[in-house]
Inverse folding.
């Protein structure tokens, strides 16, 4: 049984960004040597998420627009009352980003067969950052034979 863990580091753009990380994960899987098993993909940030879906420009736009309607930046969020919280002085007012992240998962489990992720034809692993631009880390852990 093989197991291991690697981290993907990336710098995101301003505001909400969606990055296709499928290729980076596939490289990690190849290096792991796992032929049968499972991958866990996890984001270490509270204003980000990991989803599996189609990486199609119009779908991505619809998704970002939908979440903006749910948690627009223009609303007041108690999380942004920084004077009432113990936090660093440089803390961002990002209540809207946390609210959006509550609607998406922070991790995904992906089965592996014959050394490949068992993703559907149109599926990609997408990293979503609701509070860019920042340095971000995604953890990929594997287990299998």
């Amino acid at each position: 049984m093989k197991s291991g863990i690697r981290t993907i580091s990336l710098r995101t753009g301003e505001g909400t960004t969606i990055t296709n990380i499928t290729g980076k994960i596939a490289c990690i899987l190849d290096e792991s040597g796992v032929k049968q098993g499972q991958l866990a993909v996890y984001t270490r940030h509270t204003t980000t998420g990991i989803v599996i879906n189609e990486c199609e420009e119009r779908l991505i736009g619809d998704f970002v627009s939908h979440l903006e309607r749910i948690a627009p930046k223009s609303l007041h969020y108690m999380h942004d009352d920084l004077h009432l919280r113990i936090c660093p002085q440089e803390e961002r007012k990002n209540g809207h980003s946390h609210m959006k992240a509550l609607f998406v998962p922070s991790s995904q489990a992906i089965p592996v067969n014959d050394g490949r992720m068992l993703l559907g034809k149109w599926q990609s692993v997408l990293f979503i950052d609701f509070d860019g631009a920042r340095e971000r880390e995604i953890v990929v852990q594997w287990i299998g034979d």
Notes: The chain has three helices and eight strands. The domain at 2-144 is CATH 2.60.120.460 (Jelly Rolls).
